[in-house]
Amino acid sequence: MTAKAPDKKYDVAISFLVQDLTLAQAIRDKLSEGLEVFFFPHNQEELAGTDGLESMRTPFLHESRVNLVLYREKWGNTPGPELRLQRSKRPA
Fold first, then answer.
1. In a domain, 4, yes or no
2. pLDDT tens digits for 30-75?
């Protein structure tokens, strides 16, 4: 059922705040039934031993067809993947 673009590792990458972990997991569980999903708590082993900032940016910027953001007011202003994703979109 997966119709993943040949140059993309993931169909969907999910970004969320820690208070939305349960919701994000539920969404990941459903999407994973037919799609390849990047979900940080699940994919931590892939990032071990790498440059953390670059490794967190890559799935969202280059390896996924769609980025799903569970947005709250503080998304992008807290440490973690959300902040890294936001910073990755800023010009150098």
1. no
2. 999 999 999 876 555 555 555 556 667 788 889 999 999 998 887 6
Domain that residue 17 falls in = 10-88
Neighbour count for residue 53 (Cβ, 10 Å): 12
Q: pTM surpassing 0.85?
A: no
Residue 31: inside a domain: yes
Residue 5 lies in a domain: no
- The angle subtended at Cα 40 by Cα 49 and Cα 5, nearest 5°, is 100
Residue 47 lies in a domain: yes
SS3 1: coil
Distance in angstroms (rounded) separating the CA atoms of residues 86 and 77: 9
Instruction: Output the CA–CA distances (angstroms, integers) from residue 63 to 37, 74, 77, in the order listed.
Output: 10, 25, 23
